[in-house]
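Hey, can you fold this one?
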Amino acid sequence: MKLFFFVLKGCGQRYLVGPPGGSRIVGGREAPEGAWPWQVSIQLQSRHHCGGAILNRLWVLTATHCFHKFLWISRRHFRVVAGLRVLSTPGDHVQIRSISKVKTHEDYSDITGDNDVMLILLSSPFNFTDHVQPICTPLDVTHESVLSFSHCFVTGWGRLMNRLQEAEVELINSSTCNLASWYDGLISENMICAGLESGAADTCQGDSGGPLQCYSESQEKFYVVGVTSFGEKCGLPHKPGVYARTSRFAGWLKAILSRYYDTQVVKMTNVGFFLHLQ
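Sure. Predicted structure:
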């Protein structure tokens, strides 16, 4: 039996909030309603465990380290919650799905944090609404550079936050991030650093697996550029957040999704629908 799924044409669109612009938000703030419709809360025993990003109706991207030490726990204790802004009061826009399968990266290193990406296959598809949408993924490293991102953000609930938070960050080149006073050579080509040199904006452990998302003005879309992997404490100078660089895993993502769906374009009577694999 072959399984197919469909999404509305497009990704990386947010319909309740306009495109980013203006002055930088230093230090972060509470995210507006519907600002990050691809953000999910991966929950263990109904408590927030890690973040993630919706790639399409059935697949969520997160970090392997979120599950690496919990693989012995039955999947029925986990769930994925989309359309969520306030943990304590989910609201009418929330969609909850159980997990059918997890695909951790085979080369993940628990020591170095390299290859820290994972895919979650949902038990049933999300329904896309203004509050639940997929994010785009770069096709490869070259495509990532061509997109010329203007604004990048990290999002999540953090360690103690009840409401979804957002903070604008800058992408930091690997040569800087690998300086002795920064991460001293730890950053591999599969990683990307983001934050502010002052340490004013960063993700914390509670946001593990969540997206580093950047806006392309030429495409007028958001792309998931990184998956929150690790950092040294929280918001320290010269210790920005470290993310799995999504463009480096484009082939891995496509291979897994293609294994489940043997076609990328499906003809439908309603024009404007397609299988979103990127």
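The first strand starts at residue 7 and ends at 8. Let me know if you want another pass with a different chain boundary.
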